[in-house]
Amino acid sequence: MMDHQSHPEEPLQSSKSDSTEALTTVQEEAVSCHAEGSDGKHVRKSHHSQEMKSNLVSRLNRVEGQIRGIKGLIEKDTYCDDVLTQIAAAQSALNSVGKLLLEGHMKSCIVERIQAGEHEVVDELLVTMRKLMK
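The structure assignment produced for this chain is given below.
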């Protein structure tokens, strides 16, 4: 199949303890979703722990490798079903990244903004979730 270190035929699976541990770190180190920009206006920024960022970047690097591998399969005229299987694995891996990020966002930024009285954040979250569920 593919000649890189990750196993693209197996979608990335985050163990419950890995994602829970990463999210606990995010919650413990939560600063604020708001920061003041150079123009004095509020800008939103994430406030993930270094561990969470490293986890997300590592997963994205594996997805990137899977995509390069898929490109190579197409260039080598690999059987369509095999390529489609690899595409499904890459999509699953990317969805895992999205789920982890969404969970952290909901447990930190969304909760924080609701507690601050910014209830419009619920509509923003619903729009984002609709995009993710396409």
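Interim note for the steering committee: Residues 10 and 58 are 16 Å apart (CA to CA). Confidence is low (pLDDT under 50) at residues 1-17, 22-30.
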